[in-house]
# Entry
Amino acid sequence: MIEQLKKIQTEATHEISAVEDLGSLEDLRVKYLGRSGLLSQLIKQIGSLPADEKPLIGKLTNETKGLLEALWQEKLAQLKQKAAEQGDEKIDLTLPAYSFFVGHKHPITQIMEEACSIFTRLGFSIAEGPEVESDYYNFQALNFPKEHPARDMHDSFYISDDVLLRTHTSPVQVRIMEKSRPPIRIIAPGKVYRRDADITHSPMFHQIEGLLVDTSSSFSDLKGILTVFVHQMFDPQTKLRFRTSFFPFTEPSAEVDISCVMCRGKGCRVCSNSGWLEILGAGMVDPEVFKAVGYDPEKYMGFAFGMGVERITMLKYGINDIRLFYENDLRFLRQF
Ligand code: PHE
# Structure
């Protein structure tokens, strides 16, 4: 019987390693390892062996079986891999494809990036500052003295007497000027916070600040830069209008309106029939701000502007409720 076992092992090893296709491999499994295969037949005979031979033969038979099974599995894996590599696997090309949604950036992020790209092409670089800000940077250095009534408009979230969530991105102006010298050309995009919530105000929203400081920079440069921005962000037919305004950190100050993007200035519900939409605040940097950062106000001139990103996005896409931006309803977000 030992002879028989050896013979089975040699022949099976030989045949399994020579086989080239999955069908023949299955035939070999039936022939050697199947329920009525050669090994099983041998195992059945063990019962009729003399008792002292049984343990040895039993052990050898089991070893042979294990060996052949391992060989067979290995060959199976080889042949399957070969088939996959050769593309033998059957693919039903008529089955419908899986549909899936491709993710994309939030509309606010898209507009922020678009605005930043317009300004970086104009030579501005991007700056950032902290959202948790000190009273000094958010107000004092920007010429809002303590108790100044202009602070009331900012509806601040205070963390302590001297620390608050920044109410605008203008403190970045101060931080940048403190640590560098003119010429300065930066824009600072980021989150700002105010205690205000309705269909056009959110307690957290986004602004983009711009600052340019040099030995000669004028209000007409400011107008030129903003005109290029508006024409690229909306369209080249959009008109701009500067209205005098007040900010403690700019003098003179202006609010900038664009001709209504919905009705093209004819008057509609969006522009309250005025034909104009306010989109940003701007002005020439106040000498008091230069003094706070140690710049000589006789030597340097600069302009600054600040805009709300939600507002621009709402105008650009005709969105009438700011809260839609934060609800993360995919039916809304998928439209952009
Ligand atoms: N920081 C001002 C605001 O939030 C906007 C502004 C920025 C105005 C820069 C003038 C210059 O209302």
